[in-house]
Specification:
By secondary structure, the chain is of the alpha+beta class. The protein is built from twelve helices and 13 strands. The chain has three domains: 99 residues, no CATH class; 63 residues, no CATH class; 171 residues, 2-Layer Sandwich (Nucleotidyltransferase, domain 5). It is globular, with a radius of gyration of 25 Å. 28% of the residues are buried.
Length: 402
């Protein structure tokens, strides 16, 4: 919560740091030297002459070096396309550039927190500024006082200033679950649990449809002001989806912890490349933040000590949770499941979540390790054979809920 004078000094600091980063990026690209050690020997003195003191100059060096490391990793993983593609050519054909207001890291030498007084002392190009007030929730204040570690980032976004701090929170001891809570993910119903709880996405989907219409109008207009509104609305939509995912993940983890169960979820990695849809449906699919919901469940479960397993979702929508009969015709409609063998009737998403619960329980009994806390590399459920991941047999009499 800076005063106008402090805000001006912070803005000048970000601009100076990012101008220096752009100069250093061009030099690194020209020389072909992008490691931290090489850049420090090449430009440390010059960075200090550009208005940066010793520690901020080192942070600029690291920021540029890390940006090129991330670029190489994206190229190596194929995230920027194949060799010769336009996107990859643009990324490789010019130096990395930084926005004038891009975030700048601060360590404890450049930034000190007075949590009880809710103020910070921060370095700027205009000198050290004392008593700069900040606002946060009581929970965040306690985390800052007890768990803050390492660097913080100074961020300017939508006319507001933020300090993003890193806190190390200890993980709870993992308990032995008595059963698993299956979670079926979807677009109409964001999450459906094997207990029958449906977390509907009706409100979020209506909001996204309104945003889609507004986005089309602004893109057609194409003016500078329209592009600014587009950028603002994109962030607003992201925040809305993030809030919904936080609420749903918290409820799922709380219910599993309260009943002493683990959590079984679908492993939907790569679904966007596997599924082929008509053009109107692609927007809905690509707006589906299932990966974010999975991450939120993982880290909340890690804090609570709740085991989490991700299972193969193949045929979970076609298998009867009562008799294990599998048929495409079992799925009568999007929300209705009727078994052609035993006549069992249920909500389609709840039936799928019960199948996911059964698979997660079988995996756990076969020795799979929880994905939260993350298992040792090379161990855990990802190392199990596909026959176990995709098993569709009916649960045995010794399994809970059978």
């Amino acid at each position: 919560m800076p005063t106008p004078e402090v805000a001006s000094a912070l803005e000048c600091t970000l601009r100076t740091a990012n101008d220096a980063a752009n100069w250093l990026s061009g030099l690194a690209y020209e020389r072909g030297e992008t490691s931290r050690r090489a850049l420090q020997g090449l430009a440390y003195v010059d960075l200090k002459t550009r208005g940066l003191s010793a520690q901020p100059a080192l942070h600029v060096l690291r920021k540029v070096a890390d940006a090129y490391t991330a670029l190489r990793a994206n190229i190596r993983n194929g995230n920027l396309g194949k060799p010769g593609s336009k996107r990859r050519g643009r990324a490789e054909g010019r130096p990395i550039s930084f926005r004038a207001d891009a975030a700048q890291p601060y360590d404890d030498r450049c930034l000190s927190w007075q949590v009880d007084e809710r103020t910070v002392s921060i370095w700027t190009t205009a000198g050290r500024l004392q008593g700069v007030r900040f606002a946060c929730s009581e929970q965040a204040r306690n985390l800052l006082a007890e768990r803050r570690r390492g660097e913080s980032d100074l961020v300017y976004r939508d006319g507001m200033w933020f300090l993003i701090a890193t806190c190390e929170v200890p993980e709870a001891e993992l308990y032995e679950p008595v059963d698993f809570l299956g979670v079926d993910l979807g677009i109409v119903n964001i999450a459906t649990t094997s207990d029958g709880k449906i977390h509907a996405g009706r409100g979020l989907n209506r909001y996204r449809k309104r945003q889609l219409v507004l986005r089309a109008k602004l893109q057609k207009k194409g003016t500078k002001s329209a592009k600014r509104v587009l950028k603002r609305q994109r962030r607003k939509e992201q925040r809305k989806a993030t809030e919904v995912n936080h609420i749903i993940s918290k409820r799922i983890v709380t219910e599993a912890e309260r009943t002493g169960r683990g959590i079984g979820m679908e492993d939907l990695a790569g679904i966007r490349t596997r599924v082929r849809l008509r053009k109107p449906q692609r927007v809905t699919l690509h707006s589906w933040a299932f990966a974010q919901l999975g991450r939120f469940v993982e880290y909340k479960a890690r804090r609570a000590g709740v085991p989490v397993l991700f299972v193969d979702p193949a045929y979970t929508s076609r298998i009867c949770a009562e008799c294990a009969y599998t048929d495409k015709l079992n799925r009568v409609s999007r929300g209705r499941f009727v078994c052609r063998s035993c006549g069992f009737v249920d909500h389609a998403d709840r039936n799928g979540s019960r199948n996911i619960r059964a698979r997660a329980w079988r995996l756990w009994r076969s020795g799979a390790e929880s994905h939260a806390p993350a298992p040792v590399q090379g161990a855990g459920w990802r190392g199990l054979p596909n026959s176990q991941l995709g098993s569709t047999s009916k649960p045995g009499p010794s399994e809970p809920g059978s």
